[in-house]
Amino acid sequence: MNNLAILPIILPILASVIVAFFPGKLNIVRPLSKIFMVVFLGVMLFITFKVYSDGMIVLQGGGWDAPFGISLVLDYLSIILVLTTYVIATAAVFYAPHSLSDQQEKFYFYTFFFLLISGVSGAFITGDLFNLFVFFEVLLMASYGLIVLGNGKAQLRESLKYVLINLFSSMLFVTTVAFIYSLVGTVNMAHIAERVDSIPAEDQGIVTVIGILLFFVFAVKAAIFPLYYWLPNSYVVPNPVVSALFGALLTKVGIYSIFRVFTLIFVHDTGVTHQLFIWLAMLTMIFGVIGALSTNNVKLIITYNIIPAIGFILMGIGLFNEDGLSGSIYYLMHDMVIKAALFLLIGALIVAAGTKDLSQMSGVIQRFPLLGWLFFIGSLVLAGIPPFSGFIGKLLLLRGALDQGEILLTVVALLSSLLILLSMIRIFIRGFWGEKMEGMTTNPSKVHALTIPATFLISISIYLGVGAETVLPYIDQISSYLLERTEYISSVLKG
Amino acid sequence: MNQPNDLILRTTTQLIAFLLLGFSVYLFFAGHNAPGGGFIGGLTTAAAFILMYMTYGYEKIKKILPINFRLIAVVGLLITLLSGIGAIAFGEAFLSQTSDYFNFPILGEKHLATAMIFDLGVYLVVVGITLTIILSIATDSDDDSNEDVGV
C-alpha cells in the first residue's frame, strides 16, 4: 500500500474543483493554475525518482487486496508517461492565456484541462481493465468540453462526429471487457494475464479473438489505419492549445493501452496478433504521410503527422523484441513532447502570419527568427534527423525490424520518414523563407508569449536526443521488464 | 407553462413534492447497506425540484430557491474528493472507509459510516448537474454570471 500512486490522478482533480469555484475571475484562476501545474510537475519528478530508486509502487484502492480491489500501478513505463504528460501540461497552461479568448477561458477551460490531465494519468496508471474504461470516459468527458470551446459551425460539426465515434468505441470497449470477464472471471490486468496463461493451448483461439476486438477499440482512439478518418478534422478545428493536448495525449493513451494489453495479456499467439500490427503499422504510416502532403493548411499538416507516428509506435509493438519495444517507448515519449511543441508553434505561426494557408504565407522568419528556427529544429526532430530524439527511436525500431528480417517494413518506415521531413520542410520553405509577406500581425509580443512555452518543450526534446546516453538505459530497463511480465504480475497480486 | 387551469397539478404538487423530498432523504440514509444511496437520492430530490419548476414556473421558484446549482455540483465534487483524501490523512489506502455504531438521545443506536460523506458528495453532484442540465435546456435565459461562449 502506497498512496503515492493516487497522486497523479487526485491532484489534478482537486485543482479542477478548486478552479471551478471561480470560473469568471481570470486574474485568480490563471496564476493559480500555473502554480498548481508547476508544483504537480515537481511532485511527479519526485515520484519518478522514487519509482526508479525503490521499484514499482502499487496501491490497492480502499485497502481491498487485488484482484478484488482496484489496483493502481506505477511501474517504470507508466510513471515515465505520466511525467511526460505533466511536462506537456505545464507548457500548455502557460500557453493557454495567450491563445484562448477571455470568454473561452471563463467557460471552465481550466477545469476541463485539469480533468483531462487526471483522466490521461489515470489511464496510464490503472491496473484494471474496467477502470481503464472509466478513465477513458473521464478524459473523453473533459475532451468533449474542450473541443466545443470556441465558435462556429465547423467546430460543432466536428465535435459531434468526435463524440459519436468515441461513444461507439466506448460501447465496444465495455462489451469486450464483458467478454474477457466471462472468459477468465476477472478484470484486473495482472490477474487476467495469469489466468490466460493457464488456459490450455488448444482453447486459446478465443483469447486471440477477444484480443483483436480489444485492439480495434484502442485503434479507434489511437487513430490506426483504417480507423483514423475521424482524427484530422476534429483535431484541427479547436484552439491550438487544445489541439496540442489532444494530439500529444489522447491518441497516445490509445497506443499505450495497446502497448500494455499486448505485452502483458495477449502474448501467446504473436504470429496472428503482432503480425497484424506490422501490416497495419505500414499502412498507417503510408496513409498518414500522404495526408500530410496533400494539404496547404499548416495546422492540418501537423495533425496528419500524428498518424505516421502512431504507425512507428505500433511497429515496435508488432516486432515484439527488445529493440522494437525500446524504440516504441522512446518514440512514444519523443512524439508526445514534439507533437505538443509543434502544435504550440503552429498556433504561434498562425497568429504571426494571420492565415492558416501555406500558399499565402512567406518570410515569417524575417520578423520572428526564434519562431522560425524553433520550427526548423522541431521539423528535424520529428523527421528523425540525428542527433535528435526521433532518430534514436527510429534507429532502435529499424534495428528491431532488421533483426526480425522485416525488410519491407524497414523500407516503408524509412520512406515515410523522408516524406514526413518533406511535409515539414514544405512549411519551413514556403512559410518562413522568401519575401516578407503583407499582413503580418501587428501584435508581435503575443507571438513571443506563445513561443516561450514551445521553447521549453523543444529544449526537452533536444535533451531526449542529445542526452540519449542518460535516458536510454532506463528505456532498455522498461522493455526488458515488459518482456519479462512476471514482475508486474507478482507486484500487483501480492498487493 | 404556468396556465391558470392547472389546478390539479398545483394541488398534487404540494403533496408530491413534499413526499419526494422526504423519500429522497430516506433513500440517501438507506444508502450504504440497503437499496438507495447518494445517486438515487439526488435524482429523487432533483425530480421534486423539477416538478416544482414545471408547476409554478421558472421565475417564481428562482425567487424562492435562489441556488446556483453549478456551485452545488462543484461543492459536492469537493466533498467526495475530500472523503477519499481523508483516508490518506489517517495513513490508510485512498478511499478506505470505516463505520461504527453510535447511541443517539432520541433515535437510539444507529450505524454511521464514513461512506456517508462520500455519498453526500455524490448526492450534491447529482442534484447540481441534473438541474443545471435541465434548466439550461428548459430556459434560454443567460442570467448566470457566466456569459455564453456562443457555441
From TrEMBL, chain A:
The keyword Transport applies. Keywords: Antiport, Cell membrane, Membrane, Transmembrane, Transmembrane helix, Transport. InterPro entries: CPA3_Na-H_Antiporter_D, NADH_UbQ_OxRdtase, ND/Mrp_TM. It is found in: Cell membrane; Membrane. It comes from the Bacteria. One of its GO terms (molecular function) is NADH dehydrogenase (ubiquinone) activity. Residues 127-418 form the NADH:quinone oxidoreductase/Mrp antiporter transmembrane domain. It is a multi-pass membrane protein. GO terms for cellular component: plasma membrane. GO terms for biological process: ATP synthesis coupled electron transport. The chain crosses the membrane at residues 6-23, 35-53, 73-95, 107-126, 132-150, 162-184, 204-229, 241-266, 272-293, 300-320, 340-358, 370-392, 407-429, 450-475. NCBIfam families: PRK07691.1. Belongs to the CPA3 antiporters (TC 2.A.63) subunit D family. This is Multisubunit sodium/proton antiporter MrpD subunit. It comes from Aquisalibacillus elongatus.
UniProtKB/TrEMBL annotation, chain B:
The chain crosses the membrane at residues 7-29, 35-56, 68-91, 111-135. It is a multi-pass membrane protein. InterPro entries: CPA3_antiporter_subunitB, MnhB. GO terms for cellular component: plasma membrane. It comes from the Bacteria. Keywords: Cell membrane, Membrane, Transmembrane, Transmembrane helix. It is found in: Cell membrane. Its main location: membrane. Residues 8-131 form the Na+/H+ antiporter MnhB subunit-related protein domain. NCBIfam families: PRK12573.1. Belongs to the CPA3 antiporters (TC 2.A.63) subunit B family. This is Multisubunit sodium/proton antiporter MrpB subunit.
